[in-house]
Amino acid sequence: MCLFCKIINGEIPCYKVYEDSDFLAFLDISQATVGHTLVIPKKHVANIFELDSETASKMLVVIKNITNKLKEKLNLSAVNILNNSGSLAGQTVHHLHFHIIPRYENDNIHLAPDAHEIDHEALKNTLSKILN
Ligand code: AMP
Ligand code: ZN
Known about the structure:
Elements: H1 3-8, E1 16-19, E2 23-27, E3 37-41, H2 53-74, E4 79-82, E5 98-102, H3 120-131
Antiparallel strand pairs: 1-2, 2-3, 3-5, 4-5
The structure holds adenosine monophosphate and zinc ion (ZN).
């Protein structure tokens, strides 16, 4: 059984922020910033590629509600919501989870990718791969 399934069934403790019949949210053990929270579906799916549409749409509402609760209780003005799907993307726990990462002044978190020169030919080529 995966680590997060063990948290869901109570074998491993967590700092629970929210729970309902389909989802659990708890503080990330390694707080990127204060209030860093993970939201997971109770049904084990490894990543976004495996997620069914019904759970996906419910999950966004749960993420939104928890984000607003953090905003209110921790007095936030900014947040990053992040999902790593697949090892290449940095996923280390292969049970789908979204990170809610509160942002603070001078918090030293750098998530923005490097800017590249605009290449319209490459953009057209990529778009035709996606659309065709
Ligand atoms: P990712 O790299 O996107 O797969 O994120 C996995 C996250 O799970 C990391 O941010 C870890 O700090 C977090 N994590 C690992 N074990 C636990 C745990 N027992 N309780 C809470 N968070 C955990
Ligand atoms: Zn699992």
